[in-house]
Amino acid sequence: MLMGLLTGACGQKQPLPATLNEAQVRAKLEAIPMNEKVNLSDEEWRKILTPEQFSVMRERGTEPAFSNKCFNIHQSGTFVCAACGNPLFDSETKFESGTGWPSFNAALAGDRVKVVTDTSHGMVREEVTCARCGSHLGHVFKDGPPPTGLRYCMNAVALKLVSLEKATFAAGCFWGVQAEFDATKGVLKTTAGYTGGHVKNPTYEQVCAHNTGHAEAVEVEFDPAVVSYQQLLDLFWTIHDPRQKNRQGPDVGDNYRSAIFTHSPEQKAAAEASRDQQNAQGKGPIATEIVSAGEFYPAEAYHQHYKSPSCVIHR
Ligand SMILES: [Zn+2]
């Protein structure tokens, strides 16, 4: 009997893993939270990258200088990895190097790029790769302009410029709030910090002493082509209790107040309409403050991305 079962089990054919098509690879990539690493096979990368992108990004190639008109792009926004969407450079750090490749004097904070020594082609250079997906981006040289003296010489084909919008929310302790927005598709960057008060450059201790007027808040930078402000508002209502005034659960004080800091008249109108809808649906009375965004002070480094994505309850 046992033999029969074993034979039967061994006799079953295991289905071979199916090769993913382009849409499936894109879906697989998009399902990975932005703060997690991406590991796709070469075969999978080939499905979603152009041959030129594959050659540069996965085979460490270099595009000919001046070959990609994007080297000369001057719109403001954030340059993201063309393979995985990881934010890499702010347009404010881009400068004219005359080399025919897009050049930046700094990468975005948060170890978004990785620099390793490259000894290929008889030269010693510092290679720059995307820290999230490992794609080759270019090299960094020490002949750039102040204040860093660095020149990140990138392949234009490895970058994509996106115009991000800002949104700022306060919903109690910023650790959990930041983790929720970090896990949201289309949110490319979040910063935990303090805003809405009257003290410049406050410390965590000052804010917790309740005399700065600041709320613990999270500044969210998002790609409106992927996630709308309305969707962020919808999330905001669900991640805390907006009926509580100056507290969230065991955290008591005006620094834990529920607030939406709006960055435009459109955001203000959308936030107020969304609040009114919550009230109309019997989810109120909503105590959330809706005010114009003022100066935002990033919190100390140890508060940033405090909660790992595994703590997040995925929706
Ligand atoms: Zn990448």
Q: How would you characterize this protein structure?
A:
With 315 residues, the protein is α+β, with helices and mostly antiparallel strands. The protein folds into two domains: 22-162, Metal Binding Protein, Guanine Nucleotide Exchange Factor, Chain A (Beta Complex); 165-311, Peptide methionine sulphoxide reductase MsrA (Peptide Methionine Sulfoxide Reductase, Chain A, 2-Layer Sandwich). It has helices at 2-11, 22-30, 42-48, 51-57, 174-182, 204-208, 229-238, 265-280; strands at 78-81, 87-90, 94-95, 103-104, 113-118, 125-130, 136-141, 151-154, 159-162, 165-171, 187-195, 215-222, 247-248, 251-252, 258-262, 289-292, 296-298. The chain has a six-stranded antiparallel β-sheet, with no helix packed on it. A six-stranded mixed β-sheet has the order 16-15-10-12-11-17, covered by helices on one side. Strands 2-1-9 form a three-stranded antiparallel β-sheet, with no helix packed on it. Helix 2 (22-30) crosses helix 3 (42-48) and helix 7 (229-238) crosses helix 8. The longest helix has 16 residues, at 265-280. The chain is globular, with a radius of gyration of 23 Å. It starts with a helix and ends in a 17-residue tail after the last strand. Bound molecules: zinc ion. Zinc ion is lined by residues 81, 83-84, 86, 130, 132-133, 135.
